[in-house]
Amino acid sequence: MRLPPSARRCGPPDRGSLTLMLAVLFVALLALAGIVIDGGAKLTAAENASAVAQEAARAGAGMVSRASAYSSGNFIVARDQAIAAADDYLARAGYRGSARQVPGTANEIEVTVTVTEQTTVLSIIGIRSFTENGRAVATLESGVTGPGQ
Q: Disulfide-capable partner of 57 in 22, 83, 95, 138 (CB 3.0 to 4.6 Å)?
């Protein structure tokens, strides 16, 4: 049976055009999923790095020099103990980082933390991991009504 002339198509058939469109859409959706999933993981890693740095700095700033407190009544951070306490906190929590006393101060401990996370979706295009850094400074405050009071 022959089709009437009005039912015949003009021009070449559209073979494979749907397949090409689906391939392009798939790549675009995969990239969007990578941005959403791994981007969210990157934000979470940044928050974790900051939180861990804050907690480690607090652990270090709580190390009071007993000799100074007993002899003069001044509460200052025991430098070596503070750094050891902050480093111990980082090690127990399973994070890489470092602690130091802020130069020119007697009561401030600074902690920096590095968090490396593996990617889930973006590893398909060669982005295997990302690194986030967190930094925090904690100050030893003494007194009930204010610093030193």
A: 138
